[in-house]
Task: structure prediction
Amino acid sequence: MSLDVINPATKQIYKSVEASSVEELDGIIEKSKTAFSVWSQKTHEERFAALHKVAAALEENSAELAEIITSEQGKPLSLAQFEVGGAVAWTRYNADLNLAPEVIEDSEVRRVEVHRTPIGVVASITPWNWPLMIAIWHVIPAIKAGNSVVIKPSSLTPINTIRLAEIINEHTVPNLVQAFVGEGGMGEPLVTHPDVKKIVFTGSTPVGKRIASLVANDLKKVTLELGGNDAGIVLENADIDKLAEKIFMSSFINMGQTCACLKRLYVHRSKYDALCDALTKIAASQVVGEGMKEGVTFGPVQNQTQYEKVKAMIASAQASGAEVIAAELPPGLNGYFIAPTIIKTSRHDIDVVCDEQFGPVLPVIPYDDLEEVMKHAIHKEFALGGSVWGEASPELEWVVNQLDSGTVWVNNHAEVLPHVPFGGNKGSGIGVEFGMEGLLENTLRKVVNRSK
Ligand code: NAD
Result:
């Protein structure tokens, strides 16, 4: 069966690809087991060399990969190039990590070592927002640790993943990474397959919970990177001129379709109007259009469902009395475009504040009392990221201590780095990615305890 991949900037078919079928799954897993039996025996040096070749090949093919990303995901080409650059950087970082045994004790009575062994066939399921980057975040640590991978990309953005698997297999072993292409429901037989030993999933919290429930009986290892509704708090002493651009970028990067985007902004009343004006100006300066066109800085939302969801949130905010500020869209656009939108509101109970928007809209809420606003900033369900903006002060440190998210940024938000652990608390996920800690999630711990 063929799957039409839509370009969200035009609503036209970009390309059609061959979808996988559930009937093929046993054969795909068999091939993955064969790849595992070869790859898991490679030495650290061999995996190091192969992954550096993969990184170089990604770099060589960066123009093609970026064009695919823009065409199927919608983001401006410069952002797609940034995504490919990130993919290369994460690959190199993981290539260099060493999983040599750790000596815990070497005394007269015993020597204890912790060895790290691969798990087997890993199932990866990815979303449509950073399709290449998130595939890399899943696949590269998994194979660095000696596993093989079957990856199910979002059916909305599968093409860059298919290409990624080709590139990796060319420089490692055949079928080390195989794409299993299809709709969401196809993920279920994949995660429940008895020969899949670990699942790494990035996506929405409801689907993450569904996956966790499906594999609970077999106690499979899971890493779940789920939704977020990150708050940012701007202090009374914040320098708005210095921070406004960064606040805008960390909220609207990738048209707001980033798990750890700043999604709710609480601003001290003394700075409220100045910051809203500054954000409005920056929003108005964005060049909205088709990502492949020169000079475009702001693309469409990736798909119709997300477009309608975000539009409905904006409409309901307006109906609640909020002031909705957005520039007119340029004429002639026919995709899922929404101009970057600032929402001025004092309401804490409207959808655009309470729920994850995952789109180009930022509610900005004034506050007078920091302790009071903190009660709103801490989300009852999510705890992915949070931030505080201002000069060094006891108030700033107090906010850092209060926020319960997996990451707290100071005068920044949404920055992720290959060597810095990243993951959510509460409904935002289980487990961690990046850094040595993230790599270890792709291994089994084997303690070797020798008596002397
Ligand atoms: P989604 O949960 O709808 O889909 C994610 C993936 O799961 C897709 O490949 C989809 O086909 C698949 N899927 C759907 N139903 C499934 C099922 N029953 N069993 C197995 N797989 C299934 O999410 P989305 O709309 O693609 O992405 C947006 C969400 O992802 C947002 O909530 C966002 O916050 C979250 N996200 C989180 C992170 C993070 O690191 N925490 C990063 C990016 C995105």
About this structure: The pocket of nicotinamide-adenine-dinucleotide is lined by residues 125-129, 134, 152, 154-155, 184-185, 187-188, 202-204, 207, 210-211, 225-228, 259, 356, 358, 384, 424, 429 (CB under 6 Å).
